[in-house]
Amino acid sequence: MSATHTQGHAHDHHDDHGPAKGLKRWLTTTNHKDIGTMYLVFSLLMFFVGGGMALVIRAELFVPGMQLVDPGFFNTMTTVHALIMVFGAVMPATVGLANWMIPLQIGAPDMALPRMNNFSFWLLVAAFSLLILSLFMPGGGPAAGWTLYPPLVLQTGDALPLAIFAIHLAGASSIMGAINIIVTIMNLRAPGMTLLKMPLFVWTWLITAYLLIAVMPVFAGAVTMLLTDHFFGTTFFAAAGGGDPVLYQHIFWFFGHPEVYIMILPAFGIVSEIIPTFSRKPLFGYDAMVYATASIAFLSFIVWAHHMFTVGMPLAGQMFFMLSTMLIAVPTGVKVFNWTATMWRGSLSFETPMLFALAFLFLFTIGGFSGLMMAIAPVDFQYHDTYFIVAHFHYVLVPGAVFAIMAGVYYWLPKWTGHMYDTKLANLHFWSSAIFVNVLFFPQHFLGLAGMPRRIPDYSTQFADWNMVSSIGAFGFGLSQLLFVLVIWKCARGGAKVSSEVWDGARVHGLEWSVPSPAPYHTFDVAPVIK
Amino acid sequence: MKMVKRALAAGPALLLGASPAMAAWSDLNLRVGVTELSREIYGLHMLILWVCVAIAAAVFGVMIYSIATFRKSKGAVPATFEHNTKAEIVWTVIPVIILVAMAVPAARTLVKIEDTRGSELTVKVTGYQWKWQYEYVDHGVSFFSTLARTSDEARQLDSGIEPRSVENYLLEVDQPLVVPQGRKVRVLITANDVIHAWWVPDFGMKKDAIPGYINELWFNAEKPGTYRGQCAELCGRDHGFMPVVVEVLPQAEFDTWLEQQKATRQAAGAPPVRTAGARTVETAATLRVANAE
Q: For B192-248, what is each residue's pLDDT tens digit?
């Protein structure tokens, strides 16, 4: 069925049909490769904007005392840094990889809904233009934290509606992207590619897409209620009007916890592609990996209140959320064990993507351990809202999600450009990132345990030493990322030509290695047949 | 220099699990605190930490062994196995057992934390942007507690005052909460504008102060002394500048203090609630800035 469809479709195209010329190519493109590239470039840009904000934060925290910014602006920086990194950098990067790689990995000619694909991307640009513009509104940018808790967020000035519309647009963009990915995977797989033959990256994205569709509307609903509370006299979250400020937190985290997995599941998928290739061995426990991903996705819906142990929940509620949260360690453990078992008795080599994937394996696991510690509700009363939490989620997001994305870029970049990048420079990027990310975030565990709350612009002098170390790490990490840009820039311009397989023996690990490098503008006009 | 020395001291401490007596250790780890709950929480924290360290040693050990041994450059020939049911069952079941073993003591402590019965003193704490109000509900005594003037001056942008020259920088208030030693104190926590969180690390407890809610927590401080904490929920511009300071006094001294407070209040003819010490000029200015925003 699907085969006849794709073959019929192929007649509409000519094989030499290339991209339009100039700016119009990028504005009107419906090509999954162009749109993937735009998503990736956009996310890299946002990574630097959000990173710049992080450096403002770390510069102010370099020594005790207020030297650089007003405390209100500091709060804006923490808030917008998080919003940009979550919705502007990590999520679009994984969507960009999905756009580029899912059609190539399932043998499809393009995404199923190419025009909507273009619209999803440009909506995102509109969303982040609004969000960044909100910084210049009277009263300053949003400063209530990325969680936007009322009543505090209702004290925001004119930035509030801009930030909320930005979230609406980014949410709409994500939902459309998710629908596109599901439809593509469900309908455009090459003949013979059954669900349980799909590469893990496709699997993790399929599950992620369902999570997105399930929770983005919930978040949109929550921020819409903020909007009506602020402008139309409703009191959803105002205690004085019979509303409930804690209700917002429940709704937010019902979105927020699956959101965490929306960022990490595609990362799991990328790592599951890379480790087998450079171990020269099939992925260990493929089925278990798929089921573990699905279990994590399911559990992500029933653990949300572990972000709110201190709000004063009933004992039974605290027990439930403590136990359900601890359960997540089981499927996550299965994944880590399976990656390790994939390397066991393999034949390992350490190209740049593998280095990033291995750093992911170690450092994400550290983030997993601190997550398990925080699941223990009584101890979380101490950890909650301290730098220990900041250390935890940065470990799972930076050397976790971001390193996996970088691993993916280094893995597939030769396929996209047809050139091998400067591997010395790429390895330098890896080592400086891997060292500085630990200098940056590991001391934050100590700060949190010693009692430093998060989201403060100034601190008591006992926290001075480790803050200075952390800030040094931040600037080192930030500067290291310029190397990333340099590597990509050089690789896009030229370099040693690569074969279609790129990596030694990669062909058996995925369909993307069967097309030429660089991947032609149109691939799989005729669907390949999978045995 | 001091920083480097501490970092050097911290390394071996981390590896060997040095005793809490080491100076560097206290800067790196959770405080044991001065209450039964804080000690239990510390114990749970250390337990789960060591469980994680043990699992990490095993898992990272296998990873490092694989990376060191199964190298293509050493001529390793890849195996072709794709799964091993026995191993997969083992590494699913063992974590479940560890988790259950962790959940039991954790649940026990949780039940104790939530049991506020039989308290001997009740204090109501109200969070404001950006100060705390303390009310001794059965004694008609109440006052506000704001950041000490010395810290407030030093923390202004480019104040030119070196924070290290200020005693207890950002952790000092004009009037601390005073409680008796060795008594179960119940704290009722609420807020009057936005959400705050009341936290004293040495008591092991933090709870959100939420408008329209009254949350509770309890502690029983075993040692007299001054204990310092901070607001732990982002509450706006000066969130970092509303410390919590609790002074624990022996019962007799506490009684004297309470009587003095009552007498001062009666002499001033003030109503029992919301009569804090005069607002400082700085605080009023801060509030204006906030309103302007």
A: 999 999 999 999 999 999 999 999 999 999 999 999 999 999 999 999 999 999 999
Kindly report whether the global pTM for this prediction surpasses the value 0.80: yes
From chain A, the residues in CB contact with B10 under 8 A are: 446
User: How many structural domains does chain A have?
Assistant: 1
Q: Chain B: give the shortest CA distance to residue A214, in Å.
A: 28
Cα–Cα nearest to A5, from A191, A173, A132, A181: A191
Residue with tokens 């699913």: B92
Instruction: Identify which of B9, B5, B10 has the alpha carbon closest to the alpha carbon of residue A442.
Output: B10
Domain-embedded: residue A49: yes
Provide the CATH topology of domain B121-292: Immunoglobulin-like (2.60.40)
Q: What secondary structure does DSSP assign to A118-184, as a single string?
A: HHHHHHHHHHHHHHHHGGGSTT-S--STTTT-TTGGGG--THHHHHHHHHHHHHHHHHHHHHHHHHH
Contact with chain A for residue B21, Cβ under 8 A: no
Mutate to test the interface with A, among B70, B86, B100, B147 (most CBs of A within 10 A): B70
Q: Which domain holds residue A56?
A: 1-8+30-198
Its ipTM equals 0.91
Question: How is chain B split into domains, by residue range?
Answer: 1-30, 38-73+89-112, 121-292
- pLDDT value for B23: 43
DSSP string for A302-321:
S-GGGGGGGG---HHHHHHH
